[in-house]
Write the structure tokens for this entry.
Amino acid sequence: MSGKSAVVSRSAPAAIGPYSQAVRCGSWLFLSGQLPLDQAGVMAQGGVAEQTEQVILNLKAVLREAGLDLSAVVKTTVYMIDLKEFPAMNEVYAKHFPAPHPARATVQVAALPKAAAVEIEAVAALPQQEGT
């Protein structure tokens, strides 16, 4: 198995705990859950749609640091504090993720860090190296 290495993007908010924004391991990039915080750590204003937009911007920033974009994402997990807001999140999500869409799970949770309404984590496939 290949070693693992952290991916850090200054275009996304810094981790708020002892974790990496993303970890590259073998053929995979594992992106930690992104909150709707801007680069300065300020919560996105508005509802679930605006928060989802910021979360996806943060995912894009981390992916870009690894030389990828959203088309490399194969799996996401969406955490929401209220599944009644699912349509608003889903509309924004659908605008950003190209077909074939990533596999996805969406779960309701009691709370998220920083009182966010939504958080999304992702797994992306790294390009295959020639000869592998």
